[in-house]
Amino acid sequence: MSDLHNLSVKALATLLHTKEVSAVEVATRFLARMGGNPHNAFLDIDSEVTLAQARASDAKLADGTAGPLEGVPVAHKDVFVTRDFATTAGSKILSGYRSPFDATVVQRLRTAGMVTLGKLNCDEFAMGSANENSAYGPVQNPWDTARVPGGSSGGSAAAVAAGLAPAATGTDTGGSIRQPASFCGITGIKPTYGRASRYGMIAYASSLDQAGPMARSAEDCALLLRAMCGADIDRDSTSLDMPTEDFSATLNSSIEGLRIGIPKEFFGEGLATDVRAAVDGALREYEKLGAKLVPISLPRTELSIPVYYIIAPAEASSNLSRFDGVKFGHRAKDYTDLVDMYKKTRAEGFGNEVKRRIMTGAYVLSHGYYDAYYLQAQKIRRMIADDFQNAFKECDVIAGPVAPSVAWKFGENANDPVADYLADIFTLPASLAGLPGMSVPAGFGAGNMPVGLQLIGNYFKEAQLLNAAHHLQQATDFHLRKPQGI
């Protein structure tokens, strides 16, 4: 079957369970497409491991013990540790590192029957908005290889958009699932903080990091999210003790009367006209479907940027202190004593953006600045969360753009790192509040580049978001369009 790479997760699962195709056949098809590593999306591929998993899935499909997603391929962002593939987090300091265990998210998807295709490129330690910060080279956007795919889960978004994998895992700290999903024209969802275990996910900012799925449709994301989520309180202190939820159960429920909040702060100065046109078009579709648009305000939206870029670097400066060349990863060859080894190892192993954020974090946590910066940022973070709760008194979900523009060209912000930071203005507030949010393909902008519509829900309302996204995708075909040649 020549078009296997264009099929959805659900379609592949159906074909596999009815034995119209084998897991080995599906895996072989995707491995062939991955040959030569198009778009520099993958950092580690091992066809022997993948085919061994596929053969194991075929055996389960044959004897009736198959999981719900048995034999369906998936690729993992390289911040999830894996036993069978190297894990680098896109950094030289972890070059060649092999974990003795699998991250909980990896383990759960494997339990559901999914076959691992490999590890996906990402911004170093998930720090970036363009995937230009990977130590192993940038990922190319399949829609235009001269443009960025978004970050930090750029490899995940590019792999799905290019038909190299039907699904991928990503992580979202300040928008790193939603923004690359928007830039590459796919669907991605960040669940409520704590819904998916962080065990085995290399930490960037512990109070913000959250795992989520990336695929072509809301329907596929619902299947993946069900497999990924669930309590893991014995291994992750931030895991929520909540039962697994079937996010597909209400996909087709009516959205008649759904109140969609439109924050005025998301549609002001700085939003590109082409992005606004696509988002407005998607909102009109919702009105046709019976939803009601409600004007709301999120007054502290602009403050999310300074708040995030104080809190996240502060947590990163602590989390990344473990990478020192002592127990694992890169170690400098020549040094005079232990302190010299630390300095040289970290200087050689970390990239510029990681160093920048470590230094920023150390500064805001230092004596004399902790109260002035870090504590104040935490107070405003609470206010941002309160703004959302006030808004949800008037609406059920919140909608707006994912990013102010479509994907930019490589090097466009090379001399201005703050420009990348500003591109996260619409995704940061939900991350700071710990709310679920997703990106849904909503049209195309300048250069025929994809535009995503962001949907934000209240805590634990992932099913409602997926329901709203699914209805938009039933009414439009933006999620079905593919880059030329795919």
Commentary on this structure:
The chain has 486 residues and is of the alpha/beta class. It has 15 helices and eleven strands. It has a domain at 4-258: Amidase signature (AS) enzymes (Alpha-Beta Complex). Helix 4 links the parallel strand 2 (73-77) and strand 3. Belongs to the amidase family. GatA subfamily. InterPro entries: Amidase, Amidase_CS, Amidase_dom, AS_sf, GatA.
List the helices and strands and how they pair.
Blueprint: H1 9-17, H2 23-34, E1 42-44, H3 47-63, E2 73-77, H4 104-111, E3 115-120, H5 154-161, E4 167-172, H6 178-184, E5 187-190, E6 210-215, H7 218-228, E7 259-263, H8 273-288, E8 292-296, H9 304-319, H10 338-349, H11 352-364, H12 370-391, E9 397-401, H13 417-422, H14 428-433, E10 437-444, E11 450-457, H15 462-475
Parallel strand pairs: 2-3, 7-8, 7-9
Antiparallel strand pairs: 1-3, 4-6, 5-6, 5-10, 9-11, 10-11
Helix pairs in contact: 2-3, 5-6, 7-15, 9-11, 9-12
CATH topology of the domain at 4-258: Amidase signature (AS) enzymes
Total DSSP helices: 15
Unreliable spans are none
Q: Sheet bearing the most strands, described? A: 8 strands, mixed
CATH uppermost class of the domain at 4-258: Alpha Beta
Secondary-structure element order, N to C: HHEHEHEHEHEEHEHEHHHHEHHEEH
Label the structural class: alpha/beta
Helix content: 25-40%
Overall pLDDT: 97
Tell me which CATH architecture of the domain at 4-258 applies here. Alpha-Beta Complex
At the fourth CATH level, what is the homologous superfamily of the domain at 4-258?
A: Amidase signature (AS) domain
Q: Note the beta-strand portion.
A: 5-15%
What is the first-to-last residue Cα distance? 15 Å
Strand order of the largest sheet: 4-6-5-10-11-9-7-8
Question: Based on DSSP secondary structure assignment, what is the total number of beta strands?
Answer: 11
Identify the overall geometry.
globular
- Nearest-angstrom radius of gyration? 21 Å
